[in-house]
Write a structure and sequence with these properties.
The protein is of the alpha/beta class. The protein is built from 13 helices and nine strands. The strands form two sheets. It has a seven-stranded mixed β-sheet with strand order 3-2-1-4-7-6-8, sandwiched between helices. The protein has a two-stranded antiparallel ribbon with strand order 5-9. β1, α1 and β2 form a beta-alpha-beta unit. The longest helix has 26 residues. The radius of gyration is 19 Å and the shape is globular. The model has no long low-confidence stretch (mean pLDDT 92).
């Protein structure tokens, strides 16, 4: 079945200077996209090119395309410095819609793990989004997450959303990115198809959802196409409000041997020949168990 939505995947990354090597998590996202979806092309849109061993491995599979940041967001003065540190994510919010409105295809955040291919029936729609667990600021409304979007070129819903973004953008995390499309979906329900939360966000952004991702193993719905990892909530080892897991623990040893939901589904995408040790993973777990209570105490003292 020929789809209205091209079988081209888009990723947006590097909208801030890259001071650290490209992470294994991002490699596994792109590798799983390639192997699971078998796309016609994977377009990697960036301002600052990544670097490092994992980037060198995946780069040949990508079509690299340099982009410039959206001026409104690049110059915006944030009232909340905690959100301001994620300016790059807001830049990507605008970039993804501009790309999809112009070219069509499927966009996913680079902290995604692909599980099973999309059915052709989904690509027959003009525009597709997935529900997510609504954030507190949604009030009594819902939320359509922008971490996974599929669009035909020039889709009407995509253009309506993009046209309303500048006015809706207020420096908060969700006003323009997940709450605006929900409101638009109520006004223009015939312009898009909405998948249930289980399709792309089966494990949500709560502490329990992150624990189910990275610290224990749970069964996933049969129609879960991908997992979103919500990495801005946990990747920094100093952040403990959502999870004690962090990017430093997501290593080849962890992916190869951890008995967790993420590790079980990600390990098939580790490249052959990559060194991974069960003993190394056991040592990592022991160090984490010793380190976490001290770090938590330090954070409490700093908050006084």
């Amino acid at each position: 079945m020929a789809g209205a939505i091209p079988k081209i995947f888009h990723f947006v990354f590097g909208l801030r200077e890259q001071t650290e090597p490209f992470h294994l998590m991002y490699y596994l996202c792109l590798r799983s996209c390639y192997e699971v979806n078998q796309p016609d092309e994977i377009h990697f849109h960036y301002q600052h090119e990544p670097h490092g061993a994992w980037w060198d491995r995946i780069k040949p599979m990508l079509r690299l395309r340099r982009i410039d940041p959206e001026r409104l967001v690049a110059e915006y003065r944030y009232d909340d410095a905690r959100i301001g540190q994620f300016r790059y994510a807001h830049l990507a919010d605008f970039a993804r819609l501009e790309i999809l409105a112009r070219e069509g295809g499927i966009y996913a955040d680079i902290d995604t793990l692909f599980l099973r291919p999309l059915p052709d029936a989904l690509r027959a729609h003009q525009f597709v989004l997935g529900r997510e667990k609504a954030p507190p600021q949604a009030g009594d409304g819902g939320s359509l997450c922008n971490a996974w979007i599929a669009s035909a070129p020039g889709a009407a819903f995509c253009r309506l959303w993009l046209e309303g973004m500048s006015e809706a953008f207020d420096g908060s995390w969700s006003a323009h990115s997940t709450l605006l499309p929900f409101r638009l979906s109520r006004a223009y329900p015939d312009l898009l198809h909405i998948e249930p939360e289980s399709a792309f966000y089966a494990l949500d952004w709560t502490r329990q959802g992150l624990r189910d991702l990275f610290e224990r193993e749970v069964a996933l719905p049969a129609h879960a196409y991908s997992l979103h990892l919500w990495n801005h909530l946990w990747s920094d080892s100093r952040r403990l409000d959502f999870s004690r897991f962090h990017a430093g623990r997501l290593t080849p040893d962890y992916v190869a041997f951890a008995g967790t939901t993420y590790a079980r589904h990600a390990r098939r995408f580790l490249p052959a020949g990559v060194s991974a040790s069960r003993l190394g993973y056991t040592g990592q777990m022991a160090r984490a168990a010793m380190h976490y209570p001290w770090l938590r105490l330090q954070r409490r003292l700093e908050a006084r």
